[in-house]
Amino acid sequence: TGAGNNKGRGLRAFQSEKDEGLIPKKKTEDEAVEAAPAKKARGQQPDAVSKLTPPSKPISRWSDRLSFEEQLEDFMKMPRRGMYNRYLVLGKLPPELRTGENIWRLMQPVQKDIVQVEMLTCFGKPVAHVTLRSATAAAAMHRLCEQNHKNLTVAFAPPRKATTTLWLGNVDDFVPRKSLESVLASYGKVLHGLRYLPARTCAFATFGEVSSSIAARNSLYGLEVQKNQYLNIDFVDDVDAQAAPPD
């Protein structure tokens, strides 16, 4: 069915994030990442997984060729398992907030983390899609909107563009690296191998073709890599992967 036939469900996407528990209330993602090594140091090692098994079919049909309405519908159907990302969509925009520059000015506490503001129309309404540098920054902007700009609607959103490089979150020392590399290679050639950042519990994979990174993202998002620990995946620019990986 086309995006226009799902108008009611699509508009509810702006109001469902809080109910799904995606917004961290007491612990930020940075704190969660920092707490993980301490927990393992006390001997609470997660159940070992020797081999990762990808799903039999993709859990997302995301493509940069889809309309934003279609991307949003797809995103809301994904089993996100409490994970969040670095994209937000703002709705109920008054006339004075219908430019990217004005939205950027309004978000002064997080301005330095805003990468792009794209003005779009979603189900006939003006919205803003905001890309931030990290999921932590997106969570901070989400809270800022909820607390200081209650006239707006805010929700986590899908990406708008794909790149050949993927950020892989929740990749700690207990995730079987050989198996992870093998699973990723099944979607296309990975250039120069995976780049691991153990201190940030993440890794980066750069594919030779963007179609390969899209296929990997659409299939492996939410893959269980340890008991109750799931793979988070996002597109990043290669320069971001080299300089400041997303949280």
UniProtKB/TrEMBL annotation:
GO molecular function: RNA binding
InterPro entries named among the record's database cross-references: Nucleotide-bd_a/b_plait_sf, RBD_domain_sf, RRM_dom
Keywords of this entry: RNA-binding
Domain of life, per lineage: Eukaryota
Keyword RNA-binding assigned: yes
Positions with biased composition (Basic and acidic residues): 15-30
Keyword flag RNA-binding: yes
Chain intervals for the UniProt region annotation (Disordered): 1-57
Domain spans labelled RRM: 164-238
Protein name: PIGC protein
Organism the protein comes from: Symbiodinium necroappetens
Lineage: Eukaryota, Sar, Alveolata, Dinophyceae, Suessiales
UniProt gene name: PIGC
